[in-house]
Design a protein that fits this description.
This protein is of the alpha/beta class. The protein has 16 helices and 13 strands. Strand 6, helix 7 and strand 7 form a beta-alpha-beta unit.
Amino acid sequence: MTRPASRLVCAGCGSESSASDPHPFRCPNAGRGDDVDHLLQRELDLGTVRFPADEPDPNPFVRYRCLLHAYHLGLSRGLSDDTFQALVRRLDTRVAAVDAHGFRETPFRRSAKLSRALGLSREGGVWVKDETGNVSGSHKARHLFGVLLQLEVAERLGLADTRRELAIASCGNAALAAAVVAAAGGRTLRVFVPTDADPAVLTRLEELGAVVTVCPRDGSPGDPTYRRLLAAIERGALPFTCQGNLNGLAIEGGETLGWEIASSGAPLDRIVIQVGGGALASACIQAFREAVELGALPASPRIDTVQTAGAWPLKRAFDAIAASGDPMQALRFATRHRSAFMWPWEDEPQSVAHGILDDETYDWRAVVEGMLATGGRPLVVDEDLLARANALARRSTGIDVDHTGSAGLAGLLALRSAGEVSDDERVAVLFTGVVRTAPTRRRRRDEELPRTRHPVAQGLRAR
């Protein structure tokens, strides 16, 4: 047995997760009420890991396997490269059986029509990463498939002897992604959703066999679904969630999106990323940083972020840190005094971009650090701009993207209007979620929905 080529270290307190921990998702010191921003981050051994620039496989979890913690754990304990690849392909086949297709590199290209609409030159332009055709219709399944790989490898190595219930809090895309991936893995999933969850999403979750609990607000601060998730984790459920503070490895799975951009050869100056809980932005920031460290990129593009006028906790925290004489020193202070910089939004947020209405930006520290390091900043956009950006996105690209998924373009429009993006600048945006059509049926306010196990998952659990 050798030491894995990656380790999981808390960015808040410095604690390292044990290499033998089958569920290295949260810092062991999390939940102690010490106001430290505990979040496990995967750190690569740069002396032994290489960036797979010449790997042709279209499956990102095969192509970038040498950057994944589950791969490093497996190899350190005797699994072969072929065995790991076979594991990925077997799980991917099960995902395809549940959701019609598995994981493949998603399109990333310059949009001539969108570039012209923004008045950008031939030397500049807008590059679009289209995640609407990904597993379950968004980028979220990337985050969670990486977590499933860790669970499967840990079981293969004999590090875990029971299959604990998985749990997530989500109003849409993350819940659907979790349900698809959990069904493919033959695992039980509990989903906590808000009262205004899309009925179409609830119906699909039932079909996939998830146990769904609708959580009303009761006047307490913060997201009630998140509070119920924390309670479930305390009772023993595993966090199968895209919030990095609850599951640091979910960030790694999302990095596959950033690695695909880094591998494309597009000479980007800037990327504008929509932010709710912050996992997407955190994953892209870490992916670009590692691509630079491993020689695959000359430099990271500038990172700007977008939130809605309905709730912008990230900008509130960023502004407080940036106002100091030494922002990086202020960020270190903020990491150990989280509640002074990041707390739940006081009002119930509302926006057409409902997928980025998190009461808190859970991965705020990593996102603030990424913006400071690259010269970026947080933006807040109103409902009119979100609507105009979505109409422009769909008209110019033909991509059936929802308002959450095109919110990054709204941020780019705001930057362009303010004169902060030059004609020759090369900018990327992420179209992260497909439009879903909702049926008219509704649910009571605090109802647990009956579970009907997906047929693929039924077969797996019967084995």
